[in-house]
Specification:
Elements (H helix, E strand, L loop, with lengths): L35 H9 L15 E2 H4 L6 H13 L3 E5 L7 E5 H12 L5 H12 L6 E3 H7 L4 H10 L2 E5 L2 E4 L5 H20 L4 E3 H6 L10 H10 L3 E6 L2 E6 L3
Antiparallel strand pairs: 1-3, 2-3, 4-6, 5-6, 7-9, 8-9
């Protein structure tokens, strides 16, 4: 994953959690998924697999879950439970310190190994997936831990970085990463900016969610519109207001 931190306007960053009474996420009311695993599976159906020739695992951002479940503490607890059970992996995405990607472990391993087919790094990557990911929930790894605890050599660590499963965090430590996901990050930020622009340019900087979902997308929006709506609602970049006409999305001035 390309970890060059893009200089993005604060408008496009995930906002700090608020403790006031405003509700930005949609309340779970029986119409949508009622558990976190089901919600993740639903959000992953919105991921544009064909756009990446089905080479990337389906990625959901953790805050997208907040657009469906208002209880953020419950979401975080359930996400951590799935991670501890080895079913879910979490990644710190490079464009914002508070943006975390979620991927089912089985999907990640399958896509990574398929991409490694025939490469000299295949054996080392397979060893990493089995030895480290099956038992560790860390987002990053220090050189000391890789050498002493997981018994990787310096040259093997270099191979893991070359394959893209690790990316440099700083001197002597690496982030767990998704190989070849630079294009995902680029399209995601581009689409977020465009969809936020649609809301901002609407009358009174607000639009019905149902209407926004039906909008014809521009070339800047390569993902499913609903994928971006779950992003901007969960990240509290728009306010979600229930009305008699449906949910209204209002641009939040930062």
């Amino acid at each position: 994953m390309n970890r060059k931190r893009a200089l993005i306007s604060d408008t496009f960053k995930v906002k700090k959690r608020r403790n006031d009474t405003q509700k930005f996420g949609a309340v779970s009311n029986g119409e949508g998924p009622t558990d976190i695993r089901a919600t993740l599976e639903y959000l992953m159906t919105l991921f544009p697999r064909k756009l990446f020739n089905d080479t990337l695992p389906q990625v959901v951002l953790k805050h997208q879950l907040y657009s469906i479940h208002n209880d953020k503490t419950m979401v975080d607890k359930e996400v951590n439970k799935l991670r501890e059970q080895g079913e879910l992996l979490m990644f710190q995405l490079g464009f914002d310190a508070e943006a975390f990607g979620l991927v089912f472990a089985s999907n990640y391993k399958a896509k990574v190994l398929a991409g490694e087919e025939g490469r000299v790094t295949h054996g080392t990557v397979e060893k990493f997936l089995e030895k480290v990911l099956s038992s560790c929930t860390d987002l990053s790894f220090s050189k000391d831990k890789m050498l002493r605890e997981f018994l990787f050599t310096d040259s093997e660590i270099t191979q893991l970085v070359k394959s893209g499963v690790l990316t440099v965090r700083d001197a002597g430590s690496w982030w767990l990463s998704i190989p070849n996901s630079g294009k995902f990050t680029k399209y995601f930020i581009q689409g977020r900016k465009a969809v936020l622009g649609m809301v901002k340019k609407s009358k009174y900087s607000e639009v019905l969610k149902a209407e926004l979902e039906e909008r014809r997308t521009t070339s800047q929006v390569k993902f499913h519109m609903k994928y971006h709506i779950h992003d901007i609602v969960g990240a509290e970049l728009v306010e979600s207001i229930p009305t008699t006409s449906g949910t209204l999305l209002r641009f939040v001035d930062s």
